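testing teh design pipeline on a random one, pls ignore if ur not involved
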């Protein structure tokens, strides 16, 4: 599987410099577009994590920005004339629940009880754009594909639950990833 985007630095609309209308509670919430190519032919579901390993020296853990599970590949638009058959469109995080209700999004690090943030699902269970406080950070988007949906994952699952279900699914998931940079 190959994961790609039309950028290597996350554009401002999806990150720290996002305009106020692209934020909720001060957090950038418009997810960036990306492509998923060369998926195993028998795969039917996509799942992903978007994290910030460079946050470890800043806050002591890898910041979770976005998790998705059980997205049926058939629900995505295919354009056989395009070199990228599967595209995750911009702002997919906010639109996904209405477009594809069987797919679920998990909690991100904004849901931590240690942050004291509002419990607004638009912030704690959707995409949170990069906002590195100290210097540019490299973020990792890791996409998995499976033949079957992962059981037991509901809206607001935790990333560790997704990783456990991937390990327990009885198959070796197809997977790929990419790094992008978020500006400080």
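output:
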């Amino acid at each position: 599987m190959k994961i790609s985007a039309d950028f290597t630095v996350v554009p401002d609309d999806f990150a720290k410099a996002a305009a106020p209308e692209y934020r909720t509670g001060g957090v950038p919430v418009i997810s960036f577009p990306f492509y998923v190519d060369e998926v195993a032919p028998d795969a039917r579901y996509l799942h992903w994590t978007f994290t910030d390993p460079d946050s470890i020296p800043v806050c002591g853990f890898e910041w979770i920005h976005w998790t998705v599970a059980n997205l049926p590949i058939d629900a995505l638009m295919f354009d056989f004339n395009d070199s990228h058959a599967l595209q995750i469109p911009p702002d997919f995080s906010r639109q996904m629940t209405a477009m594809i209700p069987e797919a679920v999004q998990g909690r991100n690090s904004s849901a931590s009880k240690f942050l004291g943030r509002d419990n607004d699902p638009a912030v704690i269970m959707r995409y949170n754009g990069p906002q590195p406080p100290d210097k540019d950070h490299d973020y990792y988007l890791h996409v998995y594909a499976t033949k079957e949906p992962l059981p037991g994952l509901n809206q607001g699952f935790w990333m560790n639950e997704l990783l456990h279900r991937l390990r327990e699914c009885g198959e070796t998931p197809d997977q790929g990833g990419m790094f992008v940079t978020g500006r400080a």
